[in-house]
Amino acid sequence: MLLETDQVSFTVGGIPFGQVDEFGVDWSIEQLEGWTGSTRSTSEITQKPRQSGGWRSTGYSGARSISASGKIFAPDAASLSSAFDRLNAAIPAGVDRQFAVTDAAGTRWVNVQQSDDVLTNWLMTNIGTWSIQVEAADWRKFGESLSGSTKLPSTTGGLTVPFTVPFSINATTVTGQVSLTNTGNESGTVVLRIDGPCTGPIVTHQPSGRVLAFSSSLALQAGEYLLIDMDARTALANGQANRAGYITSRGWSSFRPGANTWSFTAAQYNASSQLTVTAVPAWR
Question: Which has the closest alpha carbon to 27: 38, 40, 13?
Fold first, then answer.
């Protein structure tokens, strides 16, 4: 895919491809492959014995392979040589780096590692070429994270009989819900944080109806929190100690395309209990 550098740019390892960096080096993009399309399926077909047709295995999305190339326009020969060094350092082997592409739709990113040689070459004294190949184990392209918080559901204030209209005082209602919308076309990641004091927290996701519930023997004190990673399926107290053994209903949920709501309840009510949902929209 040939590109106009004023339409598409990307960054990885601190290098702004499609732009001029802080050293006055212009990283021109000529080609970017493997970004706009979806990844292959792992599904395979096995021939049926002694009959026509085959059996298809369950298909999953494969890793995302990305290749890009272009030219480097540097102020002088020394700047070009330094640019080559920075490129080699930007894409080390065995280390995840964020690969973030910006186009007319905004910025989306994946985590990548080097999958083939980083190629550079001199064309002229201050002009060179570059080529990189990287791979993202997670096929999804992610956007900017969204977040929302709620206390446990409650209603306070207001008036009861014998008071009648037109005299009224409005009640204050806490819904106990966090609603976020995934504008992408793929399920994104979700991380929950439950801040104490809280006993036996329960989080229900809609539209899936999945319930993640903890035993009433799990009691978070004031200043303590529970960090729940829905993708990794982990529940860590204060981000460290494993609390998965307290889970009584393992309804792990994802950030589905469209509207999502997480409802927060607990075995015991405490006005200070709080749920924070952080979700990241995703695209194929």
Answer: 13
